[in-house]
Write a structure and sequence with these properties.
Layout (H helix, E strand, L loop, with lengths): L11 H10 L7 H17 L5 E6 L2 E7 L5 H17 L3 H10 L4 H4 L13 E6 L3 E9 L3 H17 L1
Antiparallel strand pairs: 1-2, 1-4, 3-4
Helix pairs in contact: 2-6
């Protein structure tokens, strides 16, 4: 997985603002299906070879693997998801915070890089008044594009 892309990396403040803005009033099993199918549609529009995973309270509510994705994408999903579960922040935000301190997640987190990956693409599902209750994860594109795809889907999901 590439750790860079031609897209401009968002700042810590921009990533934190995304998380505040993309807080949901609720998140049900049906919402997971709606968000997941929206992500599939957006990925298909781009011919993106991604895998998508949505979980709430440890239960997998949605999973899809599009053409061109591979088992390795599921391993990346698990590693990025664990970062969100541990830090209650997007995997890109966690990695960006480490880089802002002139280090890397791998060098300074003291977590096994085979188990955790602070690469973009995993985003917390946050419910108003409750906090982080789950994750939505995309893997298969460069990390900034994985992250942007999740953000776009959440924006559309909220706007519906």
């Amino acid at each position: 997985m590439s750790t860079s892309t031609s897209a401009t990396a968002p700042t810590i403040a921009e990533l934190e603002e995304q998380e505040r803005r993309l807080t949901l009033p609720r998140f049900t099993h049906d919402d997971a299906w709606t968000l997941g199918t929206l992500l599939v549609e957006l990925a298909r529009e781009r011919n993106a070879p991604v895998a998508i995973d949505i979980r709430r309270a440890g239960q997998q509510l949605f999973h899809a693997a599009l053409a061109g994705s591979a088992p390795d994408n599921d391993a990346w999903i698990d590693r990025k998801r664990r970062v969100v579960e541990r830090y209650a922040a997007s995997s890109l935000l966690v990695g960006t915070r480490f880089r802002a301190k002139d280090t890397t997640f791998e060098a300074s987190s003291r977590l096994d890089p085979d188990t955790y990956a602070a690469h973009g693409g995993a985003f917390p599902i946050t419910v108003e008044g409750t906090g982080v209750i789950g994750t939505v994860v995309v893997s298969g594109l460069p990390q900034l594009e994985d992250h942007a795809l999740v953000v776009q889907a959440l924006e559309r999901f909220i706007a519906r």
